Amino acid sequence: MTDKRNNDEKDQHLEIFRVTDKGKDMTTNQGVKISEDELSLTAGVRGPTLMEDFHFREKMTHFDHERIPERVVHARGFAAHGEFQLYENMERYTKAKIFTDTSRKVPVFVRFSTVNGSRGSADTARDARGFATKFYTEEGNYDLVANNIPVFFIQDGIKFPDVVHSFKPEPHIDTPQASTAHDNFWDFVANNPENAHMVMWIMSDRAIPRSFRMMEGFGVNTFRLVNQQGEAFFAKFHWKPKLGTHSLIWEESQKLMGVDPDFHRHDLWEAIERGDYPEYELGIQILNEEDEFKFDFDILDATKLWPEEEVPVKIIGKMTLTRNVDNFFAETEQVAFHPGNVVPGIDFTNDPLLQARLFSYIDTQLIRLGGPNFHELPINRPIRQFYNNQRDGYGRQTINVGRVNFHRNSLAGNTPSPVPPEEGGYAHYEEKVEGRKIRARSTSFTDHFSQATMFWNSMSDPEKKHIIDAFSFELGKVKSISVRQQNVDLFANVNLEMARIIAKNIGVKEPVSGGSTVTKSSPALSQLNTVKSARTRKVAVIITNGFNGPFVKAVLDSWRTEGLVPEIISEDLGPVHGTNGVILNATQNVYTADSVLYDAVYMVRGSSKDMEFNRKVAHFLDEAFRHKKTLGATGEGRQWLELNQYTNKSGVISSDNASEFAKQFVEAVRQHRHWYR
User: Fold this and answer.
1) Are 637 and 618 in contact, with CB atoms under 8 Å apart?
2) Which domains does the chain have, with CATH numbers?
3) I want to staple 81 with a disulfide (CB 3.0 to 4.6 A). Which of 123, 184, 323, 465 is the partner?
4) Is it the case that residue 405 has pLDDT exceeding 60?
5) Is 535 known as a binding-site position?
6) Of 441, 397, 391, 439, which Cα lies nearest the Cα of 154?
7) For range 362-380, the mean pLDDT
8) Is the peptide bond before 416 cis (omega within 30 degrees of 0)?
9) pLDDT band at 415 (very low <50, low <70, confident <90, very high)
10) Active site positions, annotated
């Protein structure tokens, strides 16, 4: 494992905060060298501990206060450092230098997360995922706080406490963890129809991504771009993974919660460590202000998306994640994102959910990070020094020199002083606003089902089946028959046949009315239409002593060239000997490995006198086959295909020619799954 840290521009703003203990003398937090760290100071060998033991008190006090409140939502997260580079100058739409300067690589920090579960929950739960990016720009920090689903449950942020309360563990019993399969959530769904579109996404494969590296990101809210001339444009932001958008199978995600609850964390960490840097292209949907009302949906409604076929996504740059964190707590846990962290050229709209987020995000950091100075934590610091008259407070690290702490002043020459917009000072877009103070919403927000139906219409047959299965599982866990019935009746407005199948599966009355006349679809919403790549896919290579050395070596070398990641699995860990002196190193055995950890399986030679080993191999293959993964076999491994009647099936590869086999296998893995097998 190599150390990928360097001191170039993308790391300089954090370099001064990095400290290593390796090879150093132990000291107290005051810098006093410590002579003993395992024995308290006592009155004799059997006497009481003495209060004067300052080292004991300091060590224990720090330990007792190590934890901070976890996030209310997005508590379980994992992060990495990287860089963003612009492809194309976007000055036609914005004056933000991050979107106009193609020569500069902007350092970024990205945190992925689940929404529902606690910090100790599993990675692969059915849930929306956070995709938050902090850009450390020369104009200040810009945060793009996104999700892997382009819409949200609610239209107005005042209902945010309600939806979060509903999907969290029920308060009387504090279960279930990281799951919406309970009465409270589905009671909320049934009685708040605006969430129908979001729930369709949550029940889809999008809610169980294959990895963070194969997950889209969406800014959800509608923002404004403002150019140097003061012209404004509506915008939505998208992250498009270069590896395509792919998902787990529900059974896989459930099993992974036990086999490897940190599956997504491990996947991201290992990919970066071996140099398979995750890449995402940034896209923007842009609308002229005069086009605000020309669609059959309200562009400020966060429960609606802008179909890519109607408003194309313009790809403008690429982000690459190149370095793992040095310390999880200091970076991943203490990073503070806020959609209000913008730079000149990026502004807000009247999206009511966005307006609420602008308050909520900064408010939650105050309690979680202990006060108003969380921006001074190393991971949150901008690369440009900040100057203002703010002083003091919990966690203050800056030592402000001078007597003046107010504006306006004469003692410091009236500095620090505001900067005019033409010289880079932030100025809000001068939108004309007028109206009565009311608690109401535009009637254009009242259509709750058209886009939910469009999403259903856009799905392939396997994806539709997965949605029905997810509804059936979740609602099948609901104890209240009334809540089950209400939901079936609600989603009959999305698709009547879907609702009837779900009703039958969960034991309630099939709806007799409902249905939708919407025929619109958006092919971009189906994952079957995504980019398909074999790169970074993990292949389980099951092998025992005596394999055809030259053949297998040629196959593995070819796969590595194509970007596959083979992992050798045998009876025991360590060397596995083949013919012609070829030796492979088994890093897993069938007792520590599991098919759900891999994207494909290559069966080389798996017979053993140990019948338990043979049973494990048989189960390994059967599960991979059921999960629609690519299977390959050569030599003696073919008997496993024949024994289980896998031959001549889609995605099952076998050949006597190493080059041909390797090529066909890569092409099969590129398909992700063989849904129609």
Assistant:
1) no
2) 77-162+213-380 (2.40.180.10), 533-670 (3.40.50.880)
3) 323
4) yes
5) no
6) 441
7) 93
8) yes
9) very high
10) 74, 147
